[in-house]
């Protein structure tokens, strides 16, 4: 089992009001699976994804990723697991505007430390080639199309060889052609053996996955 979440809850506190976003989610993912998490707006998809991606912590429940118990980790310890185990792709790409494509992709390796610049560069370029971006490595993000930006973000997510690739509405800011292209990229990565979790409210996007997990009002249905 690559990922095992049990009885996860998340309650946001807004002033004096508790907002229960997750109300007991169980989810397991095997290595090599491609799953889509789908459900209506406000159902808790992003909240769940942020916990699974070690970007946020649950209020209660347990969570293991690649054998490591992360449900109770906080701060630096959680960041270390996130950096090693998870590659995250955002709806809005979140690339660094002043860095080149190549520098953006190599950045997680720089943060992680312990790898010399030529090796970081080599890995970034190899991934960019795999994603069909070899002719754009010296460009800045604002010189790329939306689909190209998202493929750069995917390369950045993969450069650290994470156990799992996660994406929250990765096609949400793309037109249908660029979106289809990004989905083809996920298909190809899945065929190559990558484990992928994708969040989407779009049934057509969810249909591309091997397994669909429906979430409604903070629980899996
Ligand atoms: N930081 C926050 N503080 C307070 N409440 C929040 C916060 N983030 C999310 N929520 C609430 O938690 C619930 C779940 O939100 P979440 O963002 O996980 O939904 P979602 O399924 O991703 O929706 P969408 O499809 O619109 O992105 C919602 O009721 C939302 O208002
Ligand atoms: Mg969301």
Describe the overall structure:
It contains 7 helices and 10 strands. The strands form 2 sheets. A 6-stranded mixed β-sheet has the order 6-7-8-3-9-10, sandwiched between helices. The radius of gyration is 17 Å and the shape is globular. A hairpin with a 2-residue loop joins strand 9 (211-216) and strand 10 (219-220). The chain has one domain (3-214): P-loop containing nucleotide triphosphate hydrolases (Rossmann fold). It is of the alpha/beta class. The model has no long low-confidence stretch (mean pLDDT 95). Helix 3 crosses helix 4, helix 3 (101-112) packs parallel to helix 5 and helix 5 (146-158) packs parallel to helix 6 (176-191). Helices cover 35% and strands 27% of the residues. The structure holds adenosine-5'-triphosphate (ATP) and magnesium ion.
Features:
221 residues; 6-stranded mixed sheet; alpha/beta; Rossmann fold; binds magnesium ion; binds adenosine-5'-triphosphate
Write down the overall geometry. globular
Strand order of the largest sheet: 6-7-8-3-9-10
What Rg is obtained from the alpha carbons, in whole angstroms?
17 Å
Give me the count of strands.
10
CATH fold title: Rossmann fold
The helix count comes to: 7
Bound molecules: adenosine-5'-triphosphate, magnesium ion
Structure, briefly:
The chain has helices at residues 45-52, 75-85, 101-112, 117-130, 146-158, 176-191, 203-206, and strands spanning 3-14, 17-29, 34-38, 60-65, 68-69, 86-89, 164-168, 196-200, 211-216, 219-220. The protein is α/β, with parallel strands linked by helices.
């Amino acid at each position: 089992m690559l990922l095992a979440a049990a009885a996860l809850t998340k309650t946001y506190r807004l002033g004096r009001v508790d907002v229960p976003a997750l109300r007991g989610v169980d989810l397991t993912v095997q290595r090599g699976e491609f799953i889509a998490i789908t459900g209506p707006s406000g159902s808790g998809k992003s909240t769940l994804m942020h916990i699974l991606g070690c970007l946020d912590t649950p209020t209660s429940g347990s969570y293991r990723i690649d054998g490591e118990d992360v449900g109770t980790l906080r701060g630096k310890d959680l960041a270390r697991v996130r950096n090693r185990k998870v590659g995250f792709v955002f709806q809005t790409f979140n690339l660094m505007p002043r860095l080149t494509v190549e520098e953006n992709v190599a950045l997680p390796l720089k943060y992680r430390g312990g790898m010399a610049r030529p090796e970081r560069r080599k890995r970034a370029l190899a991934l960019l080639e795999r994603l069909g971006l070899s002719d754009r490595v010296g460009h800045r993000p604002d010189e790329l199309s939306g689909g190209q930006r998202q493929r750069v973000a995917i390369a950045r997510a993969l450069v650290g060889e994470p156990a799992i690739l996660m994406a929250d509405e990765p096609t949400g800011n793309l037109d249908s052609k660029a979106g289809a292209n990004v989905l083809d990229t996920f298909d190809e990565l899945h065929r190559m053996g990558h484990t992928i979790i994708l969040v989407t409210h779009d049934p057509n996007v969810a249909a591309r996955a091997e397994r669909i997990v429906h979430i409604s009002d903070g629980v899996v249905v």
